[in-house]
Amino acid sequence: MASATHLLTDELDIVIPTIRNLDFLEMWRPFLQPYHLIIVQDGDPSKTIKVPDGFDYELYNRNDINRILGPRSSCISFKDSACRCFGYMVSKKKYIFTIDDDCFVAQDPAGKPVNALEQHIKNLLSPSTPFFFNTLYDPYRDGADFVRGYPFSLREGVPTAVSHGLWLNIPDYDAPTQLVKPLERNTRFVDAVLTIPKGTLFPMCGMNLGFDRDLIGPAMYFGLMGDGQPIGRYDDMWAGWCIKVICDHLGLGVKTGLPYIYHSKASNPFVNLRKEYKGIFWQEEIIPFFQAAVLPKDCTTVQACYVELSKQVKEKLSKVDPYFDKLAEAMVTWIEAWDELNPTGPGAKLANGKAK
Amino acid sequence: MASATHLLTDELDIVIPTIRNLDFLEMWRPFLQPYHLIIVQDGDPSKTIKVPDGFDYELYNRNDINRILGPRSSCISFKDSACRCFGYMVSKKKYIFTIDDDCFVAQDPAGKPVNALEQHIKNLLSPSTPFFFNTLYDPYRDGADFVRGYPFSLREGVPTAVSHGLWLNIPDYDAPTQLVKPLERNTRFVDAVLTIPKGTLFPMCGMNLGFDRDLIGPAMYFGLMGDGQPIGRYDDMWAGWCIKVICDHLGLGVKTGLPYIYHSKASNPFVNLRKEYKGIFWQEEIIPFFQAAVLPKDCTTVQACYVELSKQVKEKLSKVDPYFDKLAEAMVTWIEAWDELNPTGPGAKLANGKAK
User: Fold this and answer.
1) Binary contact (A191, B196; C-beta < 8 A)
2) Domains in chain B, number
3) Residues A44-61: pLDDT tens digits?
4) Nearest to B143 among A145, A176, A186 (CB)
5) Is A149 within 8 Å of B174 when comparing Cβ atoms?
6) Which positions does the site annotation Required for activity cover (chains A, B) (predicted)?
7) Could you tell me if residue B347 is inside a domain?
8) How many CB pairs under 8 A join A and B?
9) Is residue B354 part of a domain?
10) Is the pLDDT of residue A353 over 80?
11) What is the enclosing helix (H) or strand (E) of A213?
């Protein structure tokens, strides 16, 4: 596996949304320095973000986003970590690992530092098993396998599109739970990776996330959040609902569990409540919408699936709030921008230079 | 929790299928002695099974089963641990814990003996969350909760009907995997309990299993296996497919994960291959059948669901093998026998004496 990890240094970008100096990278140096970083600077573009010496990176601020996307930059959120998805769009690599700047290296129960990226790569390079549950969790891990009663026809699995990692210390709770349990810390290291079954939705957190850009990239849109929008902190949730419906439709896998990062800083629950409160109502209607969503058979690309989903959002969720009209349009704009920056077809690979 | 565990001594039976003296209970004494045992003796009824002193038990051999059930005893397997389900039928308690006689007390990573029954009780007394995946696993455990993005309307959960425990040391592999990996041992202690999502089937192992008899008992039929049957080692799998479809229909939960037991003895893979090989073919058709099975809305009791399922088995699986005709009939016989031994309606509780 070490060699596979090494191999991917040319095939993986690390995307970090931030408004401050990236001191947190010092702790990650042994694991992340070999990789290229795409830093998406949120907020005031005149501010300088310091990156520790030795890291290879490109940095985009709001002015860059506006210049590169022109009018389509409206689909990229401002003053919200949702802006990170711009980094997915300008990357030219096969894999993305995205991490928040308040996430540090976790330790396993033996006290060993956890190389989160290596585990994401393991998750992404081994298949998923969405059609039947394996009670010993990921059957492809060392020391595990498919248990008695697991159909042999399903043991090849399907390609893994997404690897969702977890968080020790500060758990990813909503504002009401933060308010009720201010002191709760996650200390339970669950040594498991598992495929989220087909037909099951999950709350995808963007804090510690790996994915295969070639397989699912165009659906990893983090929506319209933050400045000028009625909602925040639902960027990753939105992406999670969309990617799961599309992965299920296209026969791709989504894994959750390992790797852990150490999440250091609980965000302010009062601020969060203001950002979240419409989402807390809306998710009661959004989730049933996604649970019932069916994509037509002729949607065979991620882009086609995503545009179809945008139509269903407009049709079914606009009655919840006019915001969803705007979001549905932004979903289409996002795909247009993605396709412009990521042309396909003959010669596309050659033409596909860096956006900057 | 300790008091809840104590309380359940009057509400839980432990069902053990066996052909030998129950020396394995010595190791379990601190945890299991307060409970009543129902021992289902398989094989030669003239053999005497020794039970360690101090355990409270009733024991049924084949002669007892034939006497109690009369012609309906045909639905209880012989020379196969599937016979254990007779114990579920004659119990009058709300909860069942069933365990194999080659299962010993496991240790957690800190070296502490695992009280498997206590964990099953915790699993059964706390709700399940089948409609949406919680990435921090069981949200009702100490130190855990629902994560951001989990709909508040679903946080009450649903009643838990089944608690499926796992195995350290010898994993529950099929014969081909046993043959290919004779030395593989499960050493990974995954500190998690999770709900198997609605619509997802799983391979239920009967080695270390708890369930709520009132909620799902009549569906816990382990089928026709062993003596005179073309198949073995699919008893628990059959029950697992049936209970999951019925739990999904009735809005009940199925959990898997903790507790672990220490599984000491790998069964003979050559013998297992002979028992399993038809099942290895058949499961490729049986599982899609169960995945597609829909129960009508007017099936509101476990019995009604089970009889309906038996009709669908007859209709859809008989073409796989005539065995499924016989199995479908045995499913109906099982329900008739269950209802005879477990009358409901006015005065039923009073009339409900011990079967023996």
Assistant:
1) no
2) 1
3) 999 999 999 999 999 999
4) A186
5) yes
6) 148, 155
7) no
8) 172
9) no
10) no
11) helix A213-216
The answer as to whether A7 is a domain residue is: no
pLDDT tens digits, one per residue of B54-96: 999 999 999 999 999 999 999 999 999 999 999 999 999 999 9
- Answer whether residue B303 is part of any domain: yes
Q: What is the domain range of residue B234?
A: 12-341
Residues B237 and B323: beta-carbon distance below 8 Å: no
Helices of type H across A18-154: 25-32, 62-69, 85-90, 116-125
Tell me which residue in A134, A173, A181 faces B148 most closely, judged by beta carbons.
A173
Structure tokens at A314: 């407009």
* pLDDT digit string, tens, across residues A216-251: 999 999 999 999 999 999 999 999 999 999 999 999
Q: Which candidate, B200, B192, B211, B190, places its Cα nearest to that of B132?
A: B200
CATH number for the domain that contains residue A110: 3.90.550
Q: Which residues of B touch A184 (CB under 8 A)?
A: 143, 145
Residue B284, pLDDT > 80, answer: yes
**How do residues B96-122 score in pLDDT, each as one tens digit?**
999 999 999 999 999 999 999 999 999
Task: Calculate how close chain A gets to B342, using CA atoms only, in Å.
Answer: 31
Digit-coded pLDDT (tens) for A257-287: 999 999 998 789 999 999 999 999 999 999 9
- Reported ipTM: 0.94
Contact A152 B284 (CB under 8 A): yes
Query: Which residue from B minimizes the CA distance to A169?
Result: B143
Among candidate residues A188, A201, A192, the one with its CA nearest the CA of residue A137: A192
Q: Is B35 exposed, middle or buried (0-12, 13-18, 19+ CB in 10 A)?
A: buried
